[in-house]
Amino acid sequence: MTIDLSKIPEVLQSVLVSIVLIPFWIISIYIFNKDLYNTNDYLIITCLCISLTIISNIFMLFIGFIPKIHKDIFHLNLSVKSAVYQSVVLSIFICVCHYLKTRKNINIEFTMFLYIYFIPLFILFLVNIVILRLSQK
Q1: What pTM, to 2 d.p., does this model score?
Q2: pLDDT digits over 54-63, tens only?
Q3: 57: which residues sit within 8 A by CB, 6+ positions away?
């Protein structure tokens, strides 16, 4: 049985690309919230990882698309670029925060890690909205 990837709708392809981010979120939960990870409640952990992936994808896709006002937000090419960018950024943030937690004894919990990751995305999102509003005038 072979699967022809060209027959899969592009929206579904872009969603499948974003699944790449789920292991990064699982690693961050393991490093920054061991209590949740040790509960072995895999349903909650999976739902949390999927939710964080969706939220970060929405931010990234809108950050990439708002200045261009592109009609197809789930274009596969941009979804791949977004997933690669997010994996690199998440890897860097995980490494830096883990270093600060283990070597410098700075207590970084999972919520702080989420703030560190999402606040810059939110700021970029707002900046792009302002740019869009100014360019329409």
Answers
A1: 0.80
A2: 888 888 877 7
A3: 18, 21, 79, 82, 83, 86
What is the C-alpha to C-alpha distance for residues 55 and 66, in angstroms, rounded to an integer?
A: 16
Closest CA to 93 of 38, 32, 17: 32
Encoded tokens for 12? 């579904």
Neighbouring CB atoms inside 10 A of 56's CB total 23
Which string of b and e fits 80-114 if b means at least 16 CB within 10 Å?
eebbeebeebbeebbeebbeebeeeeeebebeebb
- Give, as one character, the DSSP assignment of residue 71: S
| Angle (CA) 128 78 115, round 5° | 55
Q: At 33, list the tokens.
A: 């919230």
Q: What is the pLDDT of residues 89-118, one digit of tens each?
A: 899 999 999 999 999 999 889 999 999 999
